[in-house]
Write a structure and sequence with these properties.
Structural class: alpha+beta
Radius of gyration: 15 Å
Strand order of the largest sheet: 2-3-4-5-6-1-7
Shape: globular
Strand content: 25-35%
Helix content: 25-40%
CATH class: Alpha Beta
CATH superfamily: Gcn5-related N-acetyltransferase (GNAT)
CATH architecture: 3-Layer(aba) Sandwich
CATH topology: Aminopeptidase
Number of helices: 4
């Protein structure tokens, strides 16, 4: 597996993609670890997201209901189209921990705008100095291209 680490060190580096008609993106302000687990499974199943599948309810709750994690969900005509999670970390770092589309919404032009929303939201958080993300060669074939097209730059590659 190849893991790609990308970062954005200025909000001016964001290369936005226009909004798509019919999409709404809302923060899940009431934290519920079961909802985060559902989103993780819905979006990640096709891409072999397995690292969190064996977590206990308590571990999921500690992760998803932590004050440093915030979750946004994209909807199209009332259906979940995708989601992202932002984790506020030390020294002004914000990680885009999970990001993706539900299977029925892949290939409909939503990914660029959802990523634009995620990056803009990360930069709007107080004290943000750097936004970062990692992806791998198991993710959607366009994932790395989408991150780079929105202004992220590659800073490390790991072979495992």
């Amino acid at each position: 597996m190849i893991i790609y680490y990308l970062e954005m060190t200025s909000k001016d580096n964001l290369l936005p993609k226009e909004a798509v008609a019919g999409i709404s993106i809302n923060e899940a302000k009431v934290k519920n670890f079961r909802f985060n687990r559902f989103l993780y499974q819905l979006v990640g199943e096709a891409w072999s997201w397995t690292d969190k599948l064996s977590l206990t309810d308590q571990a999921w709750q500690e992760y998803a209901e932590n004050d440093n994690l915030r979750t946004w969900v994209a909807y199209v005509e009332g259906s979940i189209a995708g989601y992202y999670e932002l984790q506020v970390q030390d020294e002004g770092n914000v990680e885009l921990v999970y990001f993706g589309l539900a299977p029925d919404f892949i290939g409909k032009g939503l990914g660029g705008y959802l990523l634009t929303h995620a990056i803009a939201t990360a930069w709007s958080l107080p004290g943000t100095r750097r936004v970062w993300v990692h992806t791998c060669d198991l993710d959607h074939p366009n994932a790395l291209k989408n991150y780079e097209a929105r202004g992220f730059t590659l800073y490390d590659v790991e072979h495992s």
